[in-house]
Write a structure and sequence with these properties.
Layout: H1 12-31, E1 39-45, H2 68-83, E2 88-93, H3 125-128, E3 135-139, H4 150-157, E4 159-167, H5 169-182, E5 186-195, H6 199-212, E6 217-218, H7 220-235
Parallel strand pairs: 1-2, 1-4, 2-3, 4-5, 5-6
Helix pairs in contact: 2-7, 5-6
Length: about 240
């Protein structure tokens, strides 16, 4: 009778070491991917008059201070994208005055916000150079993909890489990033051009997005360099 073969087993320390090595190799491989894969689009999430990007506070939403420098950064990114003929897509959260479309959105820390017809709900056109005829996607939920035509627009434009800016980092930017990730887009977040509900939530969300796609966190300087390289490649 053949002797039973003892099952091979790892010690807890060996298993942890193997997992650490696998994760490390995966992150290294993914971080080596180009910043832009295929065609990019600049996604301007909720740059609205009552948001954290313009002086004043939206009723019902707390947020970290969004410095003037970050507002200038947003406009610089828009200008660079236009110059490179990269699509710029403006997202706007908007709700009906009778609140019928809020759903569970008011069950947490947020109060009523982004009501249709109020000036505070409008896109901050002057601050971020929003122009008539620009791509524009209104939304009723946090994610710019949920219940909107963003997916149809991106497919029509043949976009593969999403460059995300705006706010809130831990809410609308994060959930748009996640849906883009699950839709197999390459997602990048401009960490010096987003703002969260708090510093702690902002930082935690940036870490969470980097966990999903290594190399997702980028500075505006890196994005501007990538836009210039994109422009040069198209000219060549």
């Amino acid at each position: 009778m053949a002797a039973a073969v003892a099952p091979y087993s790892f010690t807890r320390r060996q298993a942890a070491g193997l997992q650490h090595n696998e994760v490390g190799m995966t992150q290294q491989k993914n971080a080596q991917r180009p910043l832009i894969v295929g065609k990019p689009a600049l996604i301007m999430v909720d740059f609205q008059r009552g948001g954290p990007y313009v002086p004043g506070t939206e009723n019902g939403i707390s947020h970290m201070d969004f410095a003037e420098e970050r507002r200038r950064t947003a406009r610089t990114l828009v200008a660079a994208a236009r110059e490179a003929q990269i699509p710029v897509i403006f997202i706007q959260e908007i709700h009906r005055p009778d609140h019928v479309d809020f759903g569970r959105e008011l069950d947490g820390a947020e109060d009523v916000h982004c009501i249709e017809g109020l000036r505070s709900t409008e896109i901050a056109a002057e601050e971020v150079d929003f122009r008539p005829g620009d791509y524009f996607v209104p939304k009723r939920r946090y994610s710019a993909f949920y219940g909107t035509d963003l997916e149809i627009l991106l497919k029509g434009l043949k976009v593969q890489t999403l460059i995300l800016t705006g706010g809130l980092t831990d809410v609308c930017v994060h959930y748009t990033f996640v849906d883009g990730h699950q839709g197999d887009y390459y997602c990048r977040v401009v960490e010096d051009c987003v703002g969260g509900s708090s510093i702690e939530a902002h930082q935690a969300s940036l870490r969470a997005m980097e966990y999903l796609q290594s190399g997702a966190r980028r500075t505006s300087g890196e994005i501007l360099a990538a836009f210039n390289a994109w422009k040069a490649s198209k000219a060549a």
